[in-house]
Amino acid sequence: MQKMLAVWAGLCLCLTGHAQYNLGIGNSNYSGIPGARINPGVTAGSPLKWEVNGLSVDVLYDNTFVYTPKGAVPAFGFKSLLKGIVDNQHYATHYLPGDPDKRYQFTLSTELLGPSFRLSLGAQQSIGLTIAARGYGNIRNIPGTMAENAWAYLKENDLWNRSLSDNSSRLDMMGWLQYGLNYSVILFDDGSNQWKAGIGLNYLQGLVAAYVRNTHLNYTLDSTQIAFANSSVDYGRTDYDSYRNIGGYHGLNHGHGFGVDLGVVYVHAANTREPEDYDYRLGLSVMDIGAIDFNRNAAAFHLQTAGGVFDNWNQQALMSNAGIDKTLSAVFYQGDSSASRTAGHFTMALPTTISVQADYRVTAHYYVNATIVKGLGHGNRPGVVQPDVYSVTPRYENRWWDVSVPLSLLYYGQWRARVGLAVRAGYVFFGGDAPVGLLALGNMQGVDFYAGVRFFVLKK
């Protein structure tokens, strides 16, 4: 767990992805492919004749448990942070011994958009193809004692020989490749009122996944054993042993699925307009409808016991997921190492969202945007969740420059206020919606950063 949390902190600085909801760039009239990640309908009637994405990167990471103290590393101290992961330095926790059952939250989402393109078909239609690698992870409502035990490799002496419980933790994580076909069209235009719609159809190749749910654990531990009483939990995972042979296709391929993006846009202008000369623009979209069935080198498990003991836990060398599964099964089912397995596959839902966008033109080149992104849960089904975003973004834009200042609230079980900055200079864009930690201006427990290069030709 400790390594996982530290790696997530490192991922927020060195792994990346495309146009998640980069508020400063995605709502521009010149956003093109990044804008379609918020609403696939916006690209119809775009001022861009065609565009090619070279490489676009973005990451969102935030949590309420692990942080890097202010001053522990310099601004943009990527090397120090990565060294800290290896040497277990520069990281601390918010665990409160006086409030051991306080619950903590983690969220991580990364995307990498590779070679992709979009083409305007006349003045009314647009079509595009995208290739992306995406990853999401959520840990929700983990009690402080469980988080601290995991962080300390179960060696937190103050938590030994105490009755501990966890009836709330839930983990969902998933990574996949996405191949998308996008189409948008202007449905109606009378010069003052315009309606646009778009759809994205995505084929998904599952790379990695894991979940933990229905957690009901009552346990005590010391230096030699972990004793469970009246405990149960469900979990599933892909076979990480198979990644050791990633040179073969089957080492990466753990399942398949499909996703759909839908969006509509209404544009109003008092007079005949250029694409960016409107009074206001309203959008509604539903993104990432779908799921992936992980049915290759994957399994689901159920653990349940009235009383089980894990003896000599600190002397176990569990080097494979098969070894972990069998050991846990033997602990919970009195020596039966195969009783816990319930299925050879599981399905995980995509981070489905519903979003509303409103863009108001103040004067030539100056706009104010308001965007709400609401992540939809999946009930008791496994699935990753997109955090909620509430934002207001003033921006200046012309054909070759965008400068914006996103003001946003992020919610994932914890509210987080953020002030960002984004810039587009010709073919290059970069920015962040939460750069305070990365700039070493405060404790770092979250980062939202994006950058990319894309080439385009403007319509005459």
> What percent of the residues sit in helical stretches (DSSP H or I)?
10-25%
Which spans of ≥5 residues are poorly predicted at pLDDT below 50? 1-19
On the 0 to 100 scale, the average pLDDT is 86
What is the terminal separation in angstroms? 55 Å
Largest sheet: 22 strands, antiparallel
Instruction: Briefly note the structural class of the backbone.
Output: mainly beta
What Rg do the Cα atoms give? 24 Å
Envelope shape: elongated
Number of domains: 1
The total count of strands amounts to 24
Explain what the structure shows.
This protein has a 22-stranded antiparallel sheet that branches. It has a two-stranded antiparallel sheet with strand order 2-3. Strand 20 and strand 21 form a beta hairpin. The protein has one domain. Helix 1 packs antiparallel against helix 4. Helices cover 12% and strands 53% of the residues. The chain is elongated, with a radius of gyration of 24 Å. It has 460 residues and is mainly beta. The longest helix is centred in the N-terminal third of the chain and has 13 residues.
